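Pilot study result, target chain (231 residues):
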Amino acid sequence: YILNSLKLAISENEKKKTILHIFNSKSILDGTYVENLPIGLFGDFYGHELTFFLIDDNDLKNIKQAFNKNNLKVKKILIKNFIEGTQIINQNNKIETFFKIKINKNKSHISFFDKASFRYEEYFNFGTSIIFKDISKVCSINNQTIIKILSDKLFGNKKLHDDNELLEEKYFDKENYRKIRKKLILDIVNARIEEIINIILNKNINIKSLKLNNMTIFIIIEDQLILNNFQ
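Predicted structure:
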């Protein structure tokens, strides 16, 4: 009854969307969490937490049309972040509650799983490319030069012995050499990384109620140059 009434409430309030996934997040009977639906049990108070994931009707229609053109019928659509989360659970048997942060070059997202139940996801329209833009703007060098610098893993697991140590001329074969301190690049990147993590995780009010002590967080970085230098 609870499930059907909530599905009806969602359908009435989101008339242009279709439900893709429904997850049973929590079941509470008389103040006690129960692992499964309390079928056959009795109590004075029952609380049930559900998570719904929706898709725009137009998007669903376009997906079905794309497959129909190839004589394929769509039976069910699974959210990619859900699939990736289940893979993490399968690979880490004892971890079922965690955040998964994935940072691509031009976009990022965060997902939350609670006791193997997919509860939340949020997308952000920025990625590691913003770090390249910062270095390029502050140091007045182009992307090709930045790629050459990072390809040498100058900042990978290495501590700079001298804060005034300069970049070598070999990185500037296609533009004029500039005296740029390696520490400056490190400071630029660290500042941007801190800002990215604050927006996605530390100061994100949307996930404040989901955070627990000693949370497990999986971070996936798409850009290997950023990962190799600033892991």
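One observation from the pilot: The chain has a mean pLDDT of 91. A full batch analysis is planned for the follow-on phase.
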